[in-house]
Amino acid sequence: MKTIGVFFYQGAGHLHVQALQKLGYLSLKIFANTDFSALDGVILPGGESSVQYDYCINNNLDKKIKEFALSKKPILGTCAGAILLSKYKSSQVNGLGLIDINIQRNYYGRQINSKIERTDSDNKAFMIRAPSITECGKKVKILDTLNDNPIFVKQDNIYCTIFHPELLTFDSKNPIKQIFK
Ligand code: GLN
What we know:
alpha/beta, Rossmann fold, two-stranded antiparallel sheet, 5 helices, binds glutamine
């Protein structure tokens, strides 16, 4: 059974752990002192990217994530996690730049505007204060779109969804299943 590490300091980590269990994976909660060597993949969940960013920087987790990326094993960032993996820069968050996308935070509205959308490839996407992917570099592959806007992308072993796949585990094309197979 594969073991997937889930960043746990802030955000939807517990929901990813539940989703991984339902989908047949073991999980390990990632905190500052976690050893990444036994992991087959990593998930950076949704939450508040500014808080998550500060924790990563203050605890050298950014370096561990970058090092893990070099192993070529998959990393999935969902929503705030996608912001952390991107090359987005602001006064609060400087993404790790592991995937050549830029992002606009909170593009799809506030918490109260959360909803399940039907994507252009007929999947379901649960959007909660989702960012928009505003630029994709040449090496980025677009895996799904919503009204022609990218919502699921990859560059090599780095995957991002601006939606929450952990909430839709019943979906047969769930990105978590596709990525950590
Ligand atoms: N809007 C949040 C941020 O910018 C992300 C929202 C989410 O992860 N659901 O950090």
